[in-house]
Design goal:
- This protein is 35% helix and 19% strand.
- By secondary structure, the protein is of the alpha/beta class.
- α2 (80-92) packs across α3 (112-129), α3 runs parallel beside α5 and α8 (221-227) runs antiparallel to α10 (342-357).
Length: 492
């Protein structure tokens, strides 16, 4: 919860003011003492003369209190306030003795609505950057769990609280996604994952769980084949949010790959970096986090999230290269490589979602290919789609929240690379090249009724070994902010 105050706290270690591009600020309510104003003005005049265009500066007001000065551009990108908040959190962490901070947003020389909008997003970015996953650390717990407490000094309390409520719902979704991706695979197996999802029912989400017996009856054999080598049972979970009273409204559908650990199966991966394969369920985690955000912010839409939860292990009953499985769609798949398992999970999940829910569109997310990382690195997710309007909306949304995507082609000429000589389709392209494209081309075959569909390959975006603007390194939660914006801007 946000904490507010009418004046600066005498025991705060620091306070923050915001200035414009030309170092202008205001103090209409005389929150700052005359002595403090004099010191700040002298410092700002030096910055102007030296033309030091630093984004974050600081000055010692006394031997026990510091003033941080955050410079705000007059014209900025939509995601600038969030990233400035994240940058401030990083800057603040350099000062080990600062635990209490007062924020004075009213010092920003903007009109009320613009000020509230900027500051709400600033705090959102600050919160996103503050994420930690220290659940399994036992040493130096006091230092690890240390938090920065802040109070907001403003005359716009009610407006900021209302605006921040929306962003806090998204933050909750992002943090849940990060938590799920960060869990070790011995803890978050498919059954444990189902238990975590079931907790969301208290928010008004309807959870439907399909176990192996039910999936076999439905014909989800492509998904079941992936998990048959593991002692842990596989599941398909549907999470429904009904925020629109008209039950006839077609839901928006989100589908996620949930491979809780991927050894590669019989087509075993190299040992080096295999531990990172606990992140192979990140697509499903984005879907789960997104649905939580919808529920918390009471999104005025009908939506469904479908996740296939499996573990790909090389057991005695594991799927073999050369096996043929009949998918939910009725199409047969020749499994040439058991490490191309995510597309098998998604094939069934996509066809199931389309048939059962008849959605307005389907967006799937998956850490699907290493090829997308070779193509786009850790800067863009790969976007593939059968629908130009949906694709355009996703792309515009990605630019607004700075969770970047880049559209890559789908074309019938790629189909020949995925045609099997003895089944309807094979699960890898043996000729080589276009690995991310042929994977998406494979998935497109399981969209049976021309439903608008987009595939986001987030293999390079779901986890980062280095810190970024809004995450401290590790699980990023990429996709939750993007899809929330997409829905609110274009479909809500």
């Amino acid at each position: 919860m946000l904490s507010f105050a009418s004046s600066l706290s005498p025991d705060s270690d620091a306070f923050v003011i915001f200035v414009t591009e030309k170092y202008v600020y205001k103090d209409k309510r005389d929150v700052l003492s005359s002595d403090t104003v004099q010191k700040i003005n002298s410092f700002l005049s030096v910055l102007k003369v030296k033309k030091k265009e630093e984004d974050i500066s600081s000055i010692d007001i006394s031997d026990r209190q510091k003033c941080f000065i955050i410079r705000v551009k007059n014209k900025y990108n939509s995601y600038f306030p969030q990233e400035r908040g994240g940058a401030f959190f990083s800057h603040l962490k350099k000062f080990k003795d600062i635990g209490k901070v007062d924020l004075y947003p009213d010092s920003l020389d903007f009109d009320s609505d613009k000020l509230v909008g900027f500051f709400s997003e600033f705090i959102f970015g600050f919160s996103l950057k503050s994420y930690k996953f220290n659940k399994y650390k036992t040493l130096d717990k006091k230092e690890i769990d240390k938090k920065i407490n802040f109070k907001i000094v403003t005359s716009n309390r009610s407006k900021i609280e209302k605006k921040y409520k929306y962003y806090d719902a998204i933050r909750e979704g992002v943090f849940l996604t990060r938590d799920l991706v960060s869990e070790p695979p011995n803890i978050l197996n498919p059954k444990a994952y189902v238990s975590e999802i079931k907790k969301l029912s208290r928010l008004g989400l309807n959870i439907k769980i399909y176990n192996e017996k039910e999936m076999k009856k439905l014909g989800l054999n492509a998904l079941l084949g992936v998990g048959q080598g593991s002692v842990n049972e596989s599941y398909l979970v549907a999470i429904e949010w009904k925020g629109k009273k008209q039950s006839s409204q077609k839901p928006l559908a989100f589908v996620g790959k949930g491979v809780c650990f991927d050894t590669g199966g019989i087509s075993l991966k190299p040992a080096k970096f295999m531990e990172e394969m606990k992140y192979d369920m990140a697509g499903s985690a984005v879907v789960v986090g997104l649905l939580k955000s919808f529920a918390l912010r009471k999104a005025k839409i009908n939506a469904v999230g479908v996740v296939g939860l499996v573990e790909n292990m090389p057991g005695g009953n594991a799927q073999r290269p050369g096996d043929i499985v009949k998918s939910f769609s009725g199409k047969t798949i020749e499994v040439l490589n058991t490490d191309a398992e995510g597309r098998l999970v998604l094939a069934d999940a996509l066809s199931f979602t389309e048939k059962k829910y008849k959605p307005k569109f389907i967006i799937d997310l998956a850490t699907l290919t290493g090829a997308i990382i070779i193509s786009l690195g850790e800067e863009y997710a790969g976007l593939f789609s059968n629908n130009d309007e949906l694709s355009k909306n996703i792309f515009k949304s990605s630019e607004n929240v700075n969770e970047k995507v880049w559209r890559l082609p789908l074309h019938k000429n790629y189909d020949k690379l995925m045609n099997s000589t003895i089944a309807d389709v094979q699960n890898i392209n043996y000729v080589g090249g276009a690995g991310a494209i042929t994977a998406a081309q494979f998935l497109q075959r399981f969209i049976l009724n021309k439903t608008p569909w987009a595939h986001l390959d987030i293999a390079g975006m779901a986890f980062s070994k280095k810190a970024a603007n809004l995450n401290p390194g590790g699980a990023t939660g990429f996709g939750v902010r993007l899809l929330n914006y997409l829905v609110k801007e274009y479909y809500e």
